[in-house]
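Is this the right way to post structure tokens for a design question? Let me know if I should format differently. Anyway, here goes:
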């Protein structure tokens, strides 16, 4: 249906006029959302109006309603906040204000609104839609408009995009801005960590979230906090003070030099009494700790959006336009969400109602319900936080005979979250009474030296934000000497092995599995935790380190674009990693607004390069002089064996005939990042805890848990991964047979195709091709 509409000539459709606004508190990603709506709207044959200053723009009309052109949203991808302004508008809360708003809209021919905001803004939007017919009637009966004038505007179409840093909306796993805010908090706490450790201080860090503890919980995991206070899981009134003291003094006794406590703005105790940062500080002072409070405040709203938010805002913005075009009066107003990594439409009113019910559940002290109403992974993440931060008091210890010896090894090129995952595996293992042995310097280290180092709590406790590999990594494989690998695994009596790495880790797993009849020790449970910037491990849509890589590329490409825009007539060809997998390039192209993206999945031809040169010419021809947006092409390092990055730049230069210059830029190892991103840290904990649970279950060391199911038919050698929003365990034998492209070292499934389509739509590449 959508395809038909997109293929239909514009004149056959009634030209839709869409208003787009940002409302409520600003959130990083709002600008990318507006860019996507404006360009997708124009591409799909609509007029798009920016409504400046939220609902104020509708109520005041005039210059606050502006028809947007393609070029008006150039550079929006990299800008924080919202360029079209946002406001809280009291007038719109009254019917009289909404009447004026309806009048202004009809004067401009607008009868569809895409609102990017929080639950308040979306509630206002839906109310506006339900009132619309009566507002129109009133405009006619009071003589403001004639029957003929209002005739084409019988129905108002509303589509909601959730822009909110709190991640507080139900029916979606993420809101636009939440991951950027989490990243900002994580960065700030990293800074605080350095000074806290230097002075052996305690810091109470207050983060946003009046009714929602998502930022508090996720930042608690990402920063290795000692304790967190979130509204959905309040501690027992009158008892939390002692609990806090116990946890912090236990960690100090183990040698930790700093104490970090995260307090969500809306923190309460089980009797709903607010818990302030000041109170928390006083408790820590009683413990004898030199304690400071840092209230992060508005830095949490600040700055340019992270890779994930740019992707989410862009894909959702495009879908919002499609939802407008597909809407009929009987379809309830949709809210664009994301569930299991897929962009979805959910009834807006129900999502808002569900969101409010979390606050109601907290109010009525039904905290289990409040937890359950959050997105699918919230409760699980809370359990993982407890596992690695609080449960070191002996309460989670297994009986002696169920305690295991587990090995961990890093394989392949370094990526940023190897240490974070190892730390989490160690902390969880220690809480259960297992021993975690780090194999030093990969399989070759094992083969040559047989060196295994038992990791203790203090060894790993500050590895949450340390990039690289503390235990050493390289590309060697068990096949260098199976006998020696088997010998040492046996010598240390390992009952499970965790291999952290990319395609080599996958290959190592397959080798061990294939040789288990010759070496029975290889029958122990072995889990690969995918960790590679290239995200090319079969069996998962995500690998640790790939989010850090994309965030590095966002910064790098923003800088490159700025350079290109300053010298005006310059095009950069940027070469990104990914091996033979186009995931990183495609994602990067989408979120940096490249003119074109060259991936191994789509063949580069002279013709395709020529088309892109035509596009560059057209863009420069339409340049109004004030165009400050640099031009960039993203090329995956293996996109073609013939058309190298240099050659593509030279071909473009030759064709430009002096009209513009070209340059190449290769970020190389910068893509591994220095410290892991917050997303990679949170997922490192998720993967690591679940991997150890898998090993426990396999050894019969614990009862089956709902979240880690070892099917009795599953083999011992698995890849843990994320498919949709679910953590999965996939057998290496099956993956090797069905899913792996061994020659090109990647999986066969291309799960990111939509990114290329949308990137081409928003860069103008599709328009040009359509007009050929
Ligand atoms: P945040 O998550 O940042 O609080 P929000 O969208 O919930 O974002 P609000 O201040 O609640 O922020 O709402 C923003 C604007 O939306 C209000 O100033 C008002 O103009 C409009 N609005 C909110 N609630 C309603 C309502 N019930 N009826 C009409 N308009 C509303």
């Amino acid at each position: 249906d959508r395809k038909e509409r997109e293929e239909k000539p514009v004149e056959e459709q009634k030209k839709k006029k869409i208003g787009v606004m940002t409302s409520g508190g600003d959130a990083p990603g709002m600008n990318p959302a507006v860019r996507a709506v404006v360009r997708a709207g124009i591409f799909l044959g609509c007029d798009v109006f920016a409504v400046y200053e939220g609902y104020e723009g509708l109520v005041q009309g005039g210059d606050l309603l502006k028809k947007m052109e393609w070029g008006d949203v150039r550079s929006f991808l990299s800008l924080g906040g919202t360029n079209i302004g946002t406001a809280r508008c009291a007038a719109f809360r009254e019917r009289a204000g909404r009447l004026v708003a309806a009048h202004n809209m009809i004067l401009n021919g607008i009868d569809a609104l895409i609102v990017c905001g929080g639950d308040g803004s979306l509630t206002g939007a839906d109310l506006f839609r339900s009132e619309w017919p009566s507002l129109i009637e009133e405009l006619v009966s009071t003589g403001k408009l004639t029957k003929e004038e209002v005739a084409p505007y019988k129905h108002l179409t509303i589509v909601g995009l959730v822009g909110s840093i709190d991640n507080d909306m139900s029916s979606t796993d993420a809101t636009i801005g939440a991951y950027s805010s989490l990243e900002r908090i994580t960065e700030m706490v990293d800074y605080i960590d350095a000074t806290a450790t230097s002075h052996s201080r305690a810091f109470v860090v207050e983060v946003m979230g009046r009714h929602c503890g998502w930022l508090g919980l996720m930042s608690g995991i990402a920063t290795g906090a000692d304790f967190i206070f979130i509204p959905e899981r309040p501690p027992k009134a009158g008892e939390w003070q002692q609990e806090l003291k116990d946890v912090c003094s236990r960690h100090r006794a183990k040698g930790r030099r700093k104490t970090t406590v995260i307090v969500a703005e809306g923190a309460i105790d089980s009797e709903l009494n607010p818990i302030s940062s000041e109170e928390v500080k006083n408790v820590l002072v009683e413990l004898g700790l030199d304690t400071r409070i840092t209230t992060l405040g508005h830095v949490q709203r600040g700055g340019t959006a992270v890779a994930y938010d740019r992707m989410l805002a862009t894909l959702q913005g495009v879908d919002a336009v499609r939802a407008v075009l597909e809407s009929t009066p009987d379809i309830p107003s949709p809210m664009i969400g994301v569930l299991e990594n897929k962009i979805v439409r959910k009834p807006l009113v129900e999502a808002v109602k569900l969101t409010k019910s979390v606050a109601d559940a907290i109010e009525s002290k039904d905290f289990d319900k409040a937890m359950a109403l959050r997105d699918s992974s919230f409760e699980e993440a809370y359990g993982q936080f407890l596992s690695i931060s609080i449960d070191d008091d002996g309460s989670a210890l297994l009986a002696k005979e169920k305690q295991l010896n587990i090995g961990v090894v890093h394989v392949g090129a370094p990526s940023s979250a190897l240490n974070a995952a190892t730390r989490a595996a160690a902390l969880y293992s220690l809480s259960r009474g297992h021993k975690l042995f780090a194999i030093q310097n990969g399989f070759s280290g094992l083969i040559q030296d047989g060196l295994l180092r038992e990791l203790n709590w203090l060894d790993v406790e500050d590895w949450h934000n340390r990039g690289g590999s503390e235990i050493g990594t390289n590309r060697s494989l068990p096949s260098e000497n199976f006998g020696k690998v088997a010998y040492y695994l046996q010598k240390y009596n390992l009952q499970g092995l965790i291999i952290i790495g990319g395609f080599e880790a996958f290959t190592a797993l397959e080798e061990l599995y294939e040789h288990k009849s010759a070496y029975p020790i290889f029958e122990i449970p072995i889990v690969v935790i995918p960790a590679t910037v290239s995200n090319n491990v079969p069996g998962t849509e995500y690998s640790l380190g790939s989010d850090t890589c994309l965030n590095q590329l966002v910064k790098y490409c923003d800088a490159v674009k700025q350079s290109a825009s300053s010298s005006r007539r310059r095009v950069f060809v940027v070469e990104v990693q990914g091996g033979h997998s186009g995931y990183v390039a495609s994602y990067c192209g989408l979120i940096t607004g490249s003119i074109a993206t060259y991936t191994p999945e789509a063949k580069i031809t002279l013709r395709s390069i020529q088309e892109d040169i035509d596009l560059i010419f057209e863009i420069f021809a339409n340049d109004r002089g004030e165009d400050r947006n640099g031009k960039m092409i993203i090329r995956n390092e293996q996109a073609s064996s013939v058309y190298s990055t240099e050659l593509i730049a030279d071909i473009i230069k030759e064709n430009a005939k002096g009209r513009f210059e070209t340059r190449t830029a290769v970020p190389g190892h910068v893509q591994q990042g220095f410290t892991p991103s917050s997303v990679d840290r949170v997922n490192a904990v998720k993967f690591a805890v679940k991997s150890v649970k898998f090993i426990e279950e396999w050894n019969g060391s614990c009862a089956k848990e709902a979240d880690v199911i070892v099917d009795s038919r599953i083999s011992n050698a698995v890849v843990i991964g994320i498919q949709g929003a679910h953590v999965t365990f996939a057998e290496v034998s099956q993956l090797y047979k069905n899913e792996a492209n061994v020659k090109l070292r990647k999986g066969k499934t291309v799960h990111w195709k939509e990114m290329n389509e949308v990137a081409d739509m928003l860069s103008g590449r599709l328009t040009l091709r359509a007009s050929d």
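Format looks fine. Someone answered above. Worth noting: The two ends are 24 Å apart (CA to CA). The mean pLDDT is 93.
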